[in-house]
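Hey forum,

I'm writing up a methods section and want to include a predicted complex as supplementary material. The small molecule is LFNQLBSZ. I've pasted the protein sequence and the SMILES. Can someone with a working setup run it? I'll credit the forum in the acknowledgements.
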Amino acid sequence: MSSVIDNTHTCQFIQGEWQAGKGIAFESVNPANGEVIWRGQGADAAQVDGAVKAARSAFYLWSAKPLAERLQVVEAFAAELTANTETMARLIAEETGKALWESRTEVAAMTGKIAISIRAHNERTGTVENPMPGARAFIRHKPHGVVAVFGPYNFPGHLPNGHIVPALIAGNVVLFKPSELTPKVAEYTVQLWQQAGLPAGVISLLQGEVATGKALAGHPGIDGLFFTGSSNTGHLLHQQYAGQPGKILALEMGGNNPLLVKDVENIDAAVHDIIQSAFISSGQRCTCARRLFLQQGAKGDAILAKLVEATSKIKVGQPFAEEQPFYGAMISAKAAAAMVKAQADIQAAGGVSLLELTQVDPALGFVTPGIIDVTKAAPLPDEEHFGPLLKVYRYEDFDAAIDEANNTAFGLSAGLLGDNEADYQHFFGRIRAGIVNWNKPITGASSAAPFGGIGASGNHRASAYYAADYCAYPVSSVEASSVSLPATLSPGLSI
Ligand SMILES: NC(=O)C1=CN([C@@H]2O[C@H](COP(=O)(O)OP(=O)(O)OC[C@H]3O[C@@H](n4cnc5c(N)ncnc54)[C@H](O)[C@@H]3O)[C@@H](O)[C@H]2O)C=CC1
Ligand SMILES: O=C(O)CCC(=O)N[C@@H](CCC(=O)O)C(=O)O
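Reply by user p_vandermeer:
Happy to help. Structure tokens for the complex are below, copy them as they are.
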């Protein structure tokens, strides 16, 4: 692992060579102590262009390899991850501020992704032969070619990995543009691919801020773009790709996710699932519950009282503390301050804080969790607040609560905590989201299931188990070993 921290840092990986960036300088800061842990320069447009061209040559070689050979490299990467789990977990914790216990689960998800992606590739994009007289009819799948992968900061290992692994298995080559907030994790990830024996040019690392992202996304030489990140950026990319039906665009974006509670006996269990849904990873999961719907009256009051009490005891602390916190720092002091501002805006609209979110130190990313009752507030903007702030809506009528839960442009995750199965069936029928859970947290989605949202949360290209689908296109073939005249000719033909 490189420990160089200067502007000549060889942080771009192009055509199998590490080289310094020639674009804008940027740095990565540990949000839990304010230390600069990485410095480098972004890839400029010429470097992006060079990487795209190198990728095109690599594509012909990589896609022509038998699947078994590609899988050997992918499995070698899994072995590298396994051997270096602790190094990777510590890097994630250092760069994102995520607690070490949780960073370890992120690495486990990365490693687990390999076997699941192989299964998904075979099951969803394998080869099928259909019976046909006098010929053989096949359904096969081919890779798109040169694809760009854009990753977010909140899971800097797992989420780009969720595009990269299936893309490589299918035979694509990848240009990886990680979040500028997590370049160190990205660099180490690509070093592990290199150690796994991935041929030169099959993966390129193009680090940098928005300028690098724009140069890559706008490059005419890419065949597709797989994006996980904010809805704003995803929408910009969608506009940019309008009128280009030949390019595959997969967008995984944020949410304004509702969690409803109705007639629950076990208050402690409900409170646990609300906390896991709203506050895990300091609220920095796209699946986190942002809006909690609680019944008016004694039942809702009891849950709310317990929720406020339990949330006030959540341990927030240093990612590497021996006694581990529930969550560590947010990604940056700036992101933490933005959550304080979001809370103030909701208060100004009439929200009543039941537990105040506070930034512990203005120079760092730590925030305590917040709960705010917005039942009587003015209508709020339909925004994703990407941090540990939960808005509470008290409701009288279940259907009205479901309507309000659906009153969002987003549609990523949603859940019901409730003891009555008929309520769940009713909820399931009406709620609009790509992930709908019952009596379980709405975070912690499985890689063995499709993962994606509707509306402003995605463009119907679900990831995780269904990532195989956007990594390859289907080809239908009718084949015979030689040309032959049919037994009967079509009317009006004589040969
Ligand atoms: N649905 C999903 O699977 C997930 C969605 N997210 C969402 O991601 C967001 C947090 O991640 P961020 O890193 O803040 O996302 P972001 O949208 O700011 O950045 C994502 C990537 O896009 C690049 N980028 C930004 N502006 C660009 C532009 N104009 N042109 C080209 N590239 C550009 C960034 O450099 C980065 O590599 C949250 O909104 C969260 O909900 C996070 C994880 C999972
Ligand atoms: O891609 C997968 O393998 C499953 C998706 C996943 O891991 N989702 C996580 C985190 C994604 C996020 O919220 O940013 C989850 O459901 O909590």
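Some notes you might quote in the supplement: The chain has 14 helices and 21 strands. The first strand starts at residue 12 and ends at 14.
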